[in-house]
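Late entry, written up from scratch paper. The run itself happened at the end of the previous shift, but nothing got recorded in the book at the time, so transcribing now.
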Amino acid sequence: LPFEKGEKFQDYSLNIQIDEVVNIGGIYIGLDKLTHFTASGYLYYKIYMLALEQLDSEEAAKRMAISMGIYGEKNILGKIPSGVFSFADLESNYQGFQFALSLCKSDSTYLKRSGKGWELEGVFDLRNYVNPFWDEFFNTSYYYDGFNLTLMPKSEAVLQNIPHYCLKFQSKRIQGIFDFYNRVADPSYSVKYLRQLIEKGELPDPSPFDIRTICNE
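Output as recorded:
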């Protein structure tokens, strides 16, 4: 609609804001990963505990919890709103689940009961849980080609845009980050399990969107 100068909508923009990125122990992550760590990690824990009662198998219960995360990425947390299946989200979910387990099940438990009630004991360090697989630059996402709530199919746009960043990717600074990631990366149970599902064709393969492959062709 042709707004007249001074209309109340004239200063509004349709520009898309990129999520804030923070550096934790040398790992670059979007702030949304903290929500995955806390909220989705707790859901993993709840599903794991319920499944453990029924299945009597820790591994099967873990897979049941991870399946919840997969369902979310295929639907309301990934494909539907943004057209993205984020493997980095799933890793932050899993690490949040590991933190929940550590509250009561590890030798150095964080949670203890005193006369005041339940209290955290010791120092919580997020760096113990953040790893390179939280970074979507390193742990590549899959981008769907259908429409989503952003009204922008992602796969074609991503494949067209990534080559424009190859010079930056090949810079000394970015290569240094990847070298560091490769040195410290230790795939979790979740990362290994998801790779198995990709190989079986049960999860979308993100490799066509990997900047390392595209920029080295």
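The first strand starts at residue 21 and ends at 24.
(Scratch paper discarded after transcription.)
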